[in-house]
Hints:
With 90 residues, the protein is an alpha+beta fold. Helices cover 34% and strands 21% of the residues.
Amino acid sequence: MSEEEGSSAIVEAPFAQKYGLDSRERFAWITLKVPSSLFSVGLTAVFSNALAEAQIPCNVVAGFPHDHLFVPVKESSRALEVLHQLQAEG
């Protein structure tokens, strides 16, 4: 994706390093195994609110049939705990 301020890409670290891309920020990739649709309403709010309450930053790529979350690597274990708890409550 390219915007006025710069470009964004989701690539693995070896690819970024090979092509000289900035790879200082490292994120864990979590794929939600809940089937979703790009027409779903409210799914993103449910998990993003739970992560926000735990003070875990999250970026979302909505896809079909699953959504993908990117959280800082150092927060990945806690993020999974929050998501598993959310699943148990649901």
